[in-house]
Inverse folding.
């Protein structure tokens, strides 16, 4: 006999496993008994295989079905939808901090590669990538992206601003100033909106103005509603152009920064030009002093080739003759190079007055026995000083002129007395002070090397 009361109705709740997998952008994981007893570290590592818990993409994305499914979702839609998706991810990576900046650049680049048809969206992608490059100090890349951004949408004030910042980072002040002015013109184009359109933007969408407050785009101060607004009054609505609030406009601040930078660069340029002018005057005075004293200074072949237009190598970094104008009359000072051909060694005296005895400088250099003088034959009283004089002297007129064309190997060697001054030696008839450095040869008074060395010079001139 049937019961007079029907059995109570129990609603059927489908199990989670009964859900349609197609409702999810990635496969629903199935229970895996082998992972029931994972340690805490293993469990965390397992969780990080899921896109929701990932801190970075795996190197092999194809091996992760979740990531593969998400990537398919990313590229599913119109070009504008795909680009918008990548822009959102790029913004999130940018907000995550400096360590995620490379990811932000990658996302913005993928958004650009999607070729959105919305020019303003394309402009934002370029401008946002420029912002990341600015944070990384890549001013050249930032400038290029900002330029592409304004090409896509000339009303993108942030693009003009970031382009100006990038050019300022490159110390291209002129271009930075131009971009700031163009950005301000772009901002002023908002005045082309009708008053009613501006009321709609401000009153109906107040969040739109709030998001601009304090940002790079500035905050627009709008006139108050007229008394006739919303009534039957048909008087013409005011069409005054809104003004950018300077207190909330970084582009205005940037213009002031650029002007300050321009002033700094101009001051630095003036200082540099003044230094060059002073150096040129000093060089002319030294050249005149050398000529008046009959000292022939010519560039060596190595120096001439290094400073020629066909070579990018710098001229040898050698000390140069100077003129001490604090004395009356002015004193010429020359660098002196002592050569020891027996041991292929040299000693350089940076500054020697023309009135100093050459032997005094040598005695100071050889006051302590050099480490290479194992025989102890280079004592101050055991050596002679010699100079090499060309057999075909260029003549006094060559001082300060072009390089000497004669064969420099054709020289004779002349002994210099210990009482001779630096100026006397430099004025030796026919002597060339190569590159402004007075070179002298130091030989032991006795010894096989000295005999052979002098004999070679005698044979050379015969």
């Amino acid at each position: 006999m049937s019961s007079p009361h029907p059995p109570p109705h129990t609603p059927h709740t489908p199990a989670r496993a009964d859900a349609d997998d197609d409702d999810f952008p990635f496969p629903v994981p199935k229970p895996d008994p082998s992972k029931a007893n994972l340690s805490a570290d293993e469990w965390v590592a397992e969780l990080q295989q899921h896109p929701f818990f990932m801190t970075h993409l795996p190197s092999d994305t194809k091996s992760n079905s979740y990531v593969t499914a998400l990537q398919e979702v990313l590229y599913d839609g119109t070009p504008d939808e795909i680009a918008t998706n990548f822009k959102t991810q790029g913004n999130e990576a940018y907000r995550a901090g400096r360590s995620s900046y490379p990811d932000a650049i990658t996302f913005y680049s993928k958004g650009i590669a999607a070729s959105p048809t919305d020019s303003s969206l394309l402009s934002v992608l370029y401008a946002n990538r420029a912002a990341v490059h600015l944070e990384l100090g890549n001013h050249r890349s930032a400038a290029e992206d900002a330029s592409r951004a304004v090409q896509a949408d000339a009303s993108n004030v942030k693009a003009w601003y970031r382009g100006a910042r990038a050019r300022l980072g490159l110390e291209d002040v002129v271009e930075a100033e131009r971009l700031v002015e163009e950005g301000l013109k772009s901002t002023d184009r908002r005045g082309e909106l009708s008053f009613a359109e501006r009321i709609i933007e401000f009153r109906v969408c107040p969040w739109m103005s709030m998001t601009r407050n304090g940002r790079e785009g500035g905050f627009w101060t709008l006139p108050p509603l007229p008394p006739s607004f919303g009534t039957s009054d048909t008087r013409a609505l005011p069409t005054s152009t809104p003004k950018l609030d300077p207190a909330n406009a970084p582009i205005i601040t940037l213009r002031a920064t650029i002007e300050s930078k321009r002033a700094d660069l101009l001051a630095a340029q003036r200082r540099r030009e003044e230094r060059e002018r002073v150096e040129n005057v000093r060089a002319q005075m030294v050249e005149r002093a050398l000529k008046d004293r009959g000292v022939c200074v010519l560039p060596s072949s190595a120096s001439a080739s290094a400073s020629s237009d066909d070579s990018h190598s710098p001229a040898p970094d050698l000390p140069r003759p100077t003129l001490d104008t604090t004395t009356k009359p002015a004193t010429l000072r020359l660098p002196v190079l002592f050569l020891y051909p027996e041991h292929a060694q040299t000693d350089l005296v940076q500054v020697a007055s023309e009135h100093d005895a050459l032997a005094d400088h040598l005695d100071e250099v050889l006051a302590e026995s050099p480490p290479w003088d194992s025989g102890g034959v280079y004592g101050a009283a055991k050596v002679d000083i010699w100079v090499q004089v060309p057999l075909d002297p260029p003549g006094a007129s060559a001082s300060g002129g072009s390089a000497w064309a004669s064969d420099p190997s054709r020289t004779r060697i002349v002994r210099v007395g210990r009482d001779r001054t630096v100026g006397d030696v430099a004025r030796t008839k026919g002597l060339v002070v190569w590159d402004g450095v007075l070179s002298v040869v130091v030989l032991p008074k006795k010894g096989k090397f000295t005999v052979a060395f002098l004999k070679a010079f005698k044979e050379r001139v015969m």
Summary: Residues 322-461 form a domain with the Ubiquitin-like (UB roll) fold (CATH 3.10.20.90). Confidence is low (pLDDT under 50) at residues 12-26, 188-248, 302-315, 395-408. The chain is about 45% helix and 10% strand.
